[in-house]
Amino acid sequence: MSENLRNVSFYDRPNVEKDIIQIGEGVPIGLEGVYSKNLGIGGVYGSWGQSYSNANLTPFVEKRIGAPLQPDDVLNLSELGFDFRQHIQDLSEEDHLKLEVEVGARLLRKAIQVCGWGANEVDGVLIGMSGPVSHDYVSRIAEMAGIRESALKVSVHKACDGSMGGLHLALNPLLAKQGEVNIAEELRGKKVLVGGIEGLSRFTSGVKDKNALQLFGNGMGVLGVIPNENMKFLVGKSFENYDEDGLLAVRMYYPHTASGDGLVDVIQEDSTHIRISGLMHEPDDGASIEMAGLMGMVKLFVRTGVQVVEDVYKDYHSLMDKIGESGKAITTGVVHHANYKINALKAKHLSKLGINFPMPWLLHDFGNVSAASNVISFLRQLPNIKLGDHIMFDGFGAGTYYDVMAVQMGNG
């Protein structure tokens, strides 16, 4: 993000389309579209709710927890990479559902428009969500956006890794296990919407965790991609490692059988809807989220996250050697924005391993928006990405789940 926009709320950016959704006292919403003509790829990202700066966030958090914050409770959010985030008022369950379905449908419709597609041309919708407002959320927003009923819908519940888990499924045919639908094969060469929609203000509304209430906010983003055409899979790794200590405990607001191999359930909900459900270490008190402090997140994500990126990076260079492009390098990294210190520490450890590529921090105006953050980061970098560039996507989230992949932009 350019420095002249560093201290600007998302809604005040020059290309954001703003509106008010008439639910409750009225909910602000903003969407920004991005399209690269050279790549033939685009998408939309945005947020909904009132925008809170670091300076005016404390009263909101105090109202949510019903008690004053002590000086030691107030995080240095700017140091963590966050200057604004969006929150909504408390609503009824019925109004929460109406609001998030409207938000999701607007996002999909706008993305279809930005990509120059027709709604009836979309063959797949893959959405990452930490805590879905309803089990059929993806089907609801797809229908409301005018996407035909026969299009494949995939709900991905792997916390902050959800959107990258969805993108990986859309691109990598090696992820499918025997007996499962091979999503990448199904969607190869077709028009697909993939992203994350995170109503984290709703999700955290009842918690007493002071860190979570300061860090998280609402965010959404979706890409329009054509797998193996405008985005070509090179190498990747999906990894899961159960959070035994509950360093970032998250309640599962979705079905999970906790059976079978690994931590992830693949559930065929109906003929056109697949649910990817990641097992979580849930809070003991039934809350939606409980954090073991900021150092707990560092411990949870850095060591294993570095290892997964290193593995994919080695596979990438082995592939480049094999196809005679040994000098080809990763142009940029699209990394989940958990907080700036985590990402900076990961970059430092990777550098010690001889792994260096840009990993820009781009979400000062959102807070941690979980599965939406990688998509927002990618779209903000999209104008500078060239045909044939190789990009590293680095997704990670509570549970814990990791999806890291290198892709080629177009076939150039």
Instruction: Determine the oligomeric state from the structure.
Output: single chain
CATH topology assignment: Peroxisomal Thiolase, Chain A, domain 1
Reading side by side through the largest sheet, how are the strands ordered?
A: 1-2-3-9-8-6-7-13-12
Structural class: alpha+beta
Strand content: 25-35%
What can you tell me about this protein's structure?
A 9-stranded mixed sheet has the order 1-2-3-9-8-6-7-13-12, sandwiched between helices. A 4-stranded mixed sheet has the order 10-17-16-15, with helices on both faces. It has a two-stranded antiparallel sheet with strand order 4-5. 29% of the residues lie in helices and 27% in strands. It has a single domain (3-409), classed as Peroxisomal Thiolase, Chain A, domain 1 (3-Layer(aba) Sandwich), CATH 3.40.47. Strand 1 and strand 2 (27-36) form a beta hairpin. The protein has 412 residues and is α+β, with helices and mostly antiparallel strands. The protein has helices spanning 54-65, 93-115, 137-144, 162-171, 183-187, 200-203, 210-215, 293-322, 340-352, 373-381, and strands spanning 17-21, 27-36, 41-48, 50-53, 84-87, 122-128, 152-157, 191-198, 219-225, 231-240, 248-250, 264-270, 273-278, 289-291, 330-335, 390-397, 401-409. The model has no long low-confidence stretch (mean pLDDT 95).
